[in-house]
């Protein structure tokens, strides 16, 4: 069920909002309603798993022993 809402805003802001709504083929009421829905929607936290899943897979030769390579490079760098 829809209900009416009266608000008071600056005239220049209303003109800009009406122009925006006209350009995007929506009503001012739709803009306000969508904005208010967005405000009260609970923030969805981004999961680290989702972020990692989006990463590109590295282009590494599977025959390379990365652990051994790590120790060799550190031995060269730090002299141990």
* Helical residue percent band: 55-70%
- Describe the biggest sheet? none
Strand content: under 5%
Q: What is the total domain count?
A: 1
List the uncertain runs. none
Distance between the termini: 75 Å
- Average pLDDT across residues? 91
Mind explaining what this structure looks like?
It contains four helices and no strands. It has one domain. The model has no long low-confidence stretch (mean pLDDT about 90). Helices cover about 55% and strands about 0% of the residues. The longest helix is centred in the first third of the chain and has 13 residues. The chain is rod-shaped. It has about 80 residues and is an all-alpha fold. It comes from Pinibacter aurantiacus. This is Antitoxin.
How are the secondary structure elements laid out?
Blueprint: H1 11-23, H2 28-40, H3 48-53, H4 66-78
Provide a quick synopsis of the model.
This is Antitoxin. This protein has 80 residues and is mostly helical.
List keywords for this structure.
0% strand, mainly alpha
């Amino acid at each position: 069920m829809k209900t009416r809402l009266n608000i008071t805003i600056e005239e220049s802001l209303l003109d800009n909002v009406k122009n925006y709504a006209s350009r995007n083929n929506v009503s001012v009421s739709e803009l306000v309603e969508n904005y208010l829905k967005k405000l009260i929607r609970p923030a969805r936290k981004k999961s680290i798993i989702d972020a990692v899943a989006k990463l590109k897979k590295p282009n590494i030769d599977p025959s390379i022993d990365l652990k051994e390579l790590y120790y060799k490079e550190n031995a060269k760098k730090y002299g141990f």
